[in-house]
């Protein structure tokens, strides 16, 4: 490691960080240096080091590991102790210098920092906290900071991370306890959830203090998130949906991220030989939105999965799968139905539903009105009733799925 220069370290440790999906920069409080004080901001600057959030937003972060050396031997991790990969390590001050240099060049909006575990959990966490502390206190850095914390570390260190970071994340790693014991035996669900519970308490206490005293310090204003690896164990989509709902409810998480397992060099014999389809990851994000924004209960999203396998269909989205399974709930009268039922119509999102609710106060909606609010009214017709449309025969067809499922098309690489 001593022979590597900063550029070589950056190449190794930025590549090693690519498996962590939870690097969204949304939700933090507004800070900037327009008054001439400090450096950086949380809401500006385009960059060239781009990361894409699952909802499509483009963000620019310096996303690196402090080190890819690790004393743990998690089977699914490319940086595990027994993995034959090139190792590198940054010092805390090297990360600080890189962050400031990249920010001044307008490459990034902030920092996403994670790490393998070296020496001990507390030693590693001390180094991570020192990066954030130095940026905030020594350099008055006001950009975004997301720290990946270590559940086994001393609670005082995790709390210190929250005082300097905008967002904290603690990975649950795998959806089931059995999967965690088999693939990451050194990690404990009890310790992971214990750390997440402590972080929730600290965030809520910080918010309460800020509501009472304006001088109270801000604590992790963008909340906490987590990540689950999909496809490394035998967990079904139904299992994953229920686990995510549990995490949202118990720990008030901002996001649960899903990362499709990818086969790694020198893989353990207990791992699958093939990666799961990336579409499975996408369907899980869609199911996540159904619970967070569309009012579905976790059990209802689970009902969209195949009863035998527990897996969500890959060819259609889970909202459409649910509607096809519960045909007795449709069609929905767009001029009378409550918001909750309108949100369950395939093809209608929160914004079109809000427009429908606003328009129908003044006049009766027709099919052409709905067509103006959506991308494809053909998909909606079996599920809605308007002033001039009622799907008498279409809604009762046994072969409805092929009519409403999106058409599969082969894309051309060099199409004009």
From TrEMBL:
Domain named Elp3/MiaA/NifB-like radical SAM core: residues: 60-287
Pfam families: Radical_SAM (PF04055)
Keywords, comma-separated and alphabetical: Iron, Iron-sulfur, Metal-binding, S-adenosyl-L-methionine
Molecular function terms from GO: catalytic activity; iron-sulfur cluster binding; metal ion binding
Presence of keyword S-adenosyl-L-methionine: yes
Lyase as UniProt keyword: no
Cofactor(s) needed: [4Fe-4S] cluster
UniProt name for this protein: Putative DNA modification/repair radical SAM protein
Organism: Rhodovarius crocodyli
């Amino acid at each position: 490691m001593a022979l590597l220069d900063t550029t070589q370290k950056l190449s190794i440790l930025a590549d090693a960080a690519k498996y962590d999906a939870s690097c969204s920069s949304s939700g933090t409080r507004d800070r900037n240096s327009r008054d001439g004080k400090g450096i950086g901001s949380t809401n500006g600057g385009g960059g060239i080091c781009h990361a894409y959030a699952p909802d499509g937003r483009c963000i620019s972060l310096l996303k690196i590991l402090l080190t890819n050396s690790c004393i743990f031997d998690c089977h699914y991790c490319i940086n595990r102790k027994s993995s034959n990969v090139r190792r590198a390590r940054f010092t805390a001050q090297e990360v600080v210098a890189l962050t400031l240099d990249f920010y001044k060049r307008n490459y990034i909006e902030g920092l996403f920092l994670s790490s393998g575990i070296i020496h001990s959990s507390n030693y590693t966490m001390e180094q991570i906290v020192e990066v954030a502390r130095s940026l905030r206190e020594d350099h008055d850095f006001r950009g975004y900071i997301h720290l990946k914390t270590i559940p086994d570390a001393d609670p005082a260190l995790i709390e210190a991370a929250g005082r300097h970071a905008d967002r904290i994340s603690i990975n649950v790693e795998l959806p089931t306890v059995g999967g965690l014991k088999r693939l990451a035996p050194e990690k404990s669900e009890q310790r992971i959830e214990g750390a997440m519970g402590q972080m929730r308490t600290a965030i809520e206490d910080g918010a309460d203090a800020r509501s009472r005293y304006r001088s109270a310090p801000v604590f992790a204003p963008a909340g906490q998130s987590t990540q689950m690896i999909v496809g490394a164990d035998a967990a079904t989509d139904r299992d994953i949906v229920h686990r995510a709902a549990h995490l949202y409810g118990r720990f008030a998480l901002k996001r649960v991220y899903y990362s499709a397992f990818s086969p790694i060099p020198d893989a353990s014999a207990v791992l699958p030989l093939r990666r799961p389809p990336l579409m499975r990851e996408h369907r899980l994000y869609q199911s996540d939105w159904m619970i967070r924004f569309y009012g579905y209960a976790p059990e209802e999203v689970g009902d969209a999965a195949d009863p035998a396998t527990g897996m969500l269909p890959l060819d259609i989205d889970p909202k459409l799968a649910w509607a096809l399974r519960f045909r007795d709930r449709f069609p929905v009268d767009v001029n009378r139905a409550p918001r909750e039922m309108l949100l369950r119509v395939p093809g209608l999102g929160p914004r079109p539903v809000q427009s429908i609710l606003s328009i129908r106060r003044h006049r009766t909606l027709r099919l052409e009105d709905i067509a103006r609010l959506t991308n494809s009214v053909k998909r909606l017709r079996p599920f809605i009733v308007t002033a001039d449309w009622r799907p008498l025969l279409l809604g009762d067809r046994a072969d409805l799925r092929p009519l409403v499922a999106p058409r599969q098309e082969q894309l051309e690489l060099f199409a004009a």
